[in-house]
Design a protein that fits this description.
By secondary structure, the chain is an all-alpha fold. Helix content is about 80%, strand content about 0%.
Length: about 100
């Protein structure tokens, strides 16, 4: 059963890594930071502490991990599909003109 959890995690995380790094490369780093921190705390850390204190089985913690990575994937795909990252500038025009001159 552990392999089912790991394979599902890896499939979701592949999409997550590609899309989140595409957003970071386009300059959308603040959204990535807030999304990873918020989802990590509220959908992974807190549920894991609660599940541990309640004596949940190992698969309960894996479900919390799967939920966290799935929510991050959904957030990043929605942000990428929204297209806000296309209007961000990583290198300013004035700075690039000074280098050329």
């Amino acid at each position: 059963y552990m392999l089912y959890f790991i394979s599902a995690y890896l499939l979701i995380d592949c999409v997550n890594i590609v899309v989140s790094n595409a957003l970071r490369g386009a300059g959308d780093t603040r959204f990535n930071m807030y999304a990873i921190t918020g989802v990590g705390i509220f959908f992974f850390a807190v549920p894991c502490v609660i599940l541990y204190k309640l004596g949940a089985p190992w698969w309960g913690l894996w479900i919390a991990l799967e939920t966290e990575i799935f929510l991050l994937c959904i957030l990043f795909v929605m942000r990428y599909s929204g297209g806000k990252w296309t209007k961000m500038r990583v290198i300013e025009v004035a700075a690039s003109n000074e280098i050329i001159e």
